Amino acid sequence: MWRRLGTGLGLLLLVGAGVGLWITQADPLPDDALAGLEGDPESGARIFAAAGCASCHIAEDGPADVLSGGKRFATDFGTFVAPNISSDPVAGVGSWDDIALANAILRGVSPDGQQYYPVFPYGAYNKMRDQDVIDLISYMRTLPASDIASQPHDIAFPFSIRRLNGGWKTFAMVDDWTLQDPASDEIAQGRYLVEALGHCAECHTPRNAIGGLDTAAWMTGAPFPAGEGRVPGITPSKLDWSVADIAEYLRSGFTPDFDSAGGEMAAVVRNTAKLTDADRQAIASYLKALPN
Predict the structure, then answer these.
(1) CB-based contacts of 289, cutoff 8 Å, min separation 6
(2) Are 48 and 57 in contact (CB under 8 A)?
(3) Are 46 and 165 contained in the same domain?
(4) Going by fewer Cβ within 10 Å, which terminus of the chain is more open, N or C?
């Protein structure tokens, strides 16, 4: 009996290990995912601004177009350090081909098949249009190179095991739109800018125990990851600004009370100020269309 029990437990362990390996494996794009697409750097500049790439990847007080990394992000899971994603072929991503960059952006997978941590918001970028991805890549290739080496994350075991991020993707990543059935094309465009490119929910939505976004409390505010203060809610019941007020704030950084954006939002406004008036109007319309 004990032998049969031991054999059964061994089989269960093997099955469990196999399921774990399957769940946590990388899931890259097909090699031909971008076939036939050509990038437009001018369009890519707008995508770059909307996606907030510079906000994380420029060095503290560094030039706005040098993506040398180094910015640190304190979280409950450890401190993450933004990598160099400049066009340098050694320190940055200049040697990566388009599909490798697209895998990082859309799937959170490195060229050698490692899982990226979701502090890189591929959980939002996975909704990007393929043309926007290739336009973004083509624009990034025009930016200056930096030979500053990327710094390692400061993360304790077991979170230091990158493969576990595959399990996080399975159980915590949001694949679908949160606002369903937008009432207009403008709101649909705002949804794309907010939920995909702008990844606004990464800061404005609370998280569950494994770090996934709590979509039932979408945009209702969340604790600062560093543990001090709170990111405000921006649903209609928590932000009573008009569409025009929100659009103006995204352009100039000034609130209806003539206060100005500060902290991390100052960097966000530097990006949204580069968008079109129609983009900012769409973002504002989307926010006003959210449930209270």
Answers:
(1) 179, 182, 183, 187, 190
(2) no
(3) yes
(4) N
